[in-house]
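User: hey, got a sec? need Serine/threonine protein kinase folded
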Amino acid sequence: MKTYMKLAEELTEVTKIVSRDPGDPVEVLSHPDPWKVVGCGNYAAVFLHPGFPDFVVKIYGRNPEGLREEILVYETLGKHPAYSQCYGYGERHLILRRIKGITLFDCLHKGIRIPEMVIRDVDNALSYARSLGLFPRDVHGKNVMLLEGRGIIVDVSDFCKREKCSKWNDLRKAYYKVYRPFLYKYPVKLPYPVLNAVRIGYRWYKNWKRRR
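Assistant: Yep! Here you go:
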């Protein structure tokens, strides 16, 4: 772990990440080999070293105070099967247990069935977080992974914010009203442009509803 922590520090020092719009994922401009980018969120990018497949480094591109909050969230959650774990951190990065599943967003793209147990697992995980005094939010199809039939939440960076968030409730409703009766029985591969159009349309609708 000491070797990996040193590599993570070196990665963080030379990697360049920009955030062009708070509502869009950050962009990685450059990073050293042999690290690979395995995901980008609105605050940070996640990197994998092929020599250490069980860990990832999450480097913040903006909102550094969010990193401190995320550390607190992981310390509060402890060890739970529906969450990752934090093994170390620096001024801009976290070292996390790698979740080797597939996001629900990519399940839709690849036509992989999403079992109902995933929804139940996430519901239970969110209830667990609330019981510890946290405020789960921003849980959606890109932040939940399917692994061996179970659901895992991979991003807890907003669990300290007290703002209301209906993303998971809306996704659950869509699962039971649309996905379960149709796409689960007859899985089709949905192109990314279609999925992104739905995502953008949902964001537009929620903003419009909030203004109303």
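Quick note: The helical segments are 2-14, 64-77, 104-110, 116-131, 167-183, 192-211. Let me know if you need anything else on Serine/threonine protein kinase.
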